[in-house]
Amino acid sequence: MKTTFLLASLLLLPVAAHAACAPTDFVIKDFKTSISGAGGGARLMLAGELVNNCTDSSAAQIRIDAKDGEGKVIQSKDGWPAGTANIAPGATAKFDLGRRFRYQSDMATYTVSVIAVRAW
């Protein structure tokens, strides 16, 4: 009786999904930046595509760093391009995290990287 209860309890516990994929299985393609408008009304476009090169459907979290002319990070934002959906092997998810940033005139360069992977 105790064994049956223990087994039933274990089956009801939520299990975190861990992807068999790694951040290195994803690549960023066609990352483009642009600024429209001026001053406080300036809007950033920080867009590209996230490509899943893993053999499993998974999702990846990306980070974009905005850097000044000396390479110092002045703003950083994370996002999941596919939201809470997995990206099929070989498929892509488009993203634009520009709206998450507040434009600063000393922003000189932007880098984007894959920081985490999971299966939903």
From TrEMBL:
Keywords: Signal. Residues 1-19 form the signal peptide. It comes from the Bacteria. The keyword Signal applies. This is Spore coat protein U domain-containing protein. It comes from Rhodanobacter glycinis. The lineage of its organism: Bacteria, Pseudomonadati, Pseudomonadota, Gammaproteobacteria, Lysobacterales.
